[in-house]
Amino acid sequence: MKRDIQQVPYGYEPPAEQRKGTLIYYDSFEHTSDEELEQAARTAEERQFQKLVLYPLHEETVRRMSKEPVRSFYKREDRLHEWKREQGRSYITVEGLEGKRKKYTPLDSALRHVAEVYPSPYFLYLTPEMANQFASFSSFEEWIVKLRLLLSSAPDSLHPRLLKYQHRWDVNGEERTEE
What we know:
The structure is a single chain. The protein is α/β, with parallel strands linked by helices. The chain has one domain: HUPs (Rossmann fold, 3-Layer(aba) Sandwich), CATH 3.40.50.620. 40% of the residues lie in helices and 16% in strands. The protein is built from 8 helices and 6 strands; from the N terminus they run βαβααβααβααβαβ. It has helices at residues 34-46, 59-66, 73-87, 97-101, 107-117, 128-136, 140-144, 160-164, and strands at 22-27, 51-56, 92-94, 122-126, 147-151, 169-171. It has a 6-stranded parallel sheet. α8 links the parallel β5 and β6. The chain is globular and about 60 Å long. 27% of the residues are buried.
């Protein structure tokens, strides 16, 4: 093995990394507008995340979670890639795991994959509806201690587990009022 020897002055400390962590936008992206995508990108910039991961869901995953009809995965994924190219921001990534699997992917598997591939800490960017669905899963309490939630807008109603862990989530762009 070759060793690279570097000399540094006495007392040198490498500069601290400015950007940290990953913001994961987990959604079907069926009804997501360019403005909502831009809001997520602005949030990633303002909070200095290293990566913004757009995680589109496969049709089977959406069907099991919400029963709503969606366009095929590759059409939604192509739209995200096109939006990403228009932005020209290097920190935005479109995750293709569900496209490779071509079937239902449980949220646990998706989060484990993201935790293996991207840098921590992890923030999950969700719509209020998706946050309530996530809170209804049995594995919610296992995951909420490993990541934080960032909701795209204020929810009308909250799942009891979201109320229990309200210190682990926040609403994007506004202060949350105690109910």
